[in-house]
Structure formats: C-alpha cells, structure tokens
Amino acid sequence: MDKQLSETQAVEALGALAQVQRLRAFRALVMAGTEGLTPSALAMQLDIAPSGLSFHLKALNHAGLVSVESSGRNLIYRAAFTRMNELLTYLTQDCCQGQSCAVVPETAKACC
C-alpha cells in the first residue's frame, strides 16, 4: 500500500513538474519504464543541452520523482513510479464526493 504524501511533498512534486523541460523529461522516463534512460539518451531524445538536463534531473530527483543508479560508467535515471502513484492518490483521494470513480477509463492501458 502506498504511503500518503504530505501536502508539502505534493507541492514539491508538483513544483518540480511545473516546468516544461522537467515535465518532458519525467514523461520520457515514464515511457522508458523500468529500463530508464541515460542522461545522454534523454538529452538527445528531448533535444536539450546535457548541462540543462542535469539541472532538471536534479530537481526531479530532489522531489522524489526520479531515481538514479550507477551502471558501470553510466547513470541510469528512472521514473519513481511509487512516488508518482502517491501523488496521483493524493490528488484524487477525495474526488467524486467519496463515491467510486475512474480517473482513468478502465479501457486505458495501465503501466504501473
């Protein structure tokens, strides 16, 4: 069961995503799944300078939205699906006046 995010953690995560390049990087890492991406592959995919990407990845990591792992000489960044789901739960926990509702249509493909 996912832990509950505090209001402060939710604001930090949303703040990290409230920038175009960081949102694009996070979405690319979500699409990459558990394999993740190296910074160079991510920079090439997003057409962003590696130095700028490093700044954005640091902000996402600080907010807990991505994880980073050393793999030989490379760093591998992955979306932190647990934190993403905690944030989604926080945002939707009181929707529909307490009634069951589908935020994502049941026919949609779930990845996490």
Describe the structure in your own words:
The chain is mainly α and 112 residues long. The chain has a single domain (7-98), classed as Winged helix-like DNA-binding domain superfamily/Winged helix DNA-binding domain (Arc Repressor Mutant, subunit A, Orthogonal Bundle). It has 5 helices and 2 strands. The protein has a two-stranded antiparallel sheet with strand order 1-2. A hairpin with a 2-residue loop joins β1 and β2 (74-79). α2 (20-32) crosses α4. The longest helix has 13 residues, at 20-32. The radius of gyration is 15 Å and the shape is elongated. The mean pLDDT is 89.
Please outline the helices and strands.
Blueprint: H1 7-17, H2 20-32, H3 39-46, H4 50-62, E1 66-71, E2 74-79, H5 81-92
Antiparallel strand pairs: 1-2
Helix pairs in contact: 2-4
How many whole angstroms does the radius of gyration measure?
15 Å
Structural class of the helices, strands and pairings? mainly alpha
User: Helical percent range?
Assistant: 40-55%
Strand portion:
5-15%
Overall mean confidence score, pLDDT: 89
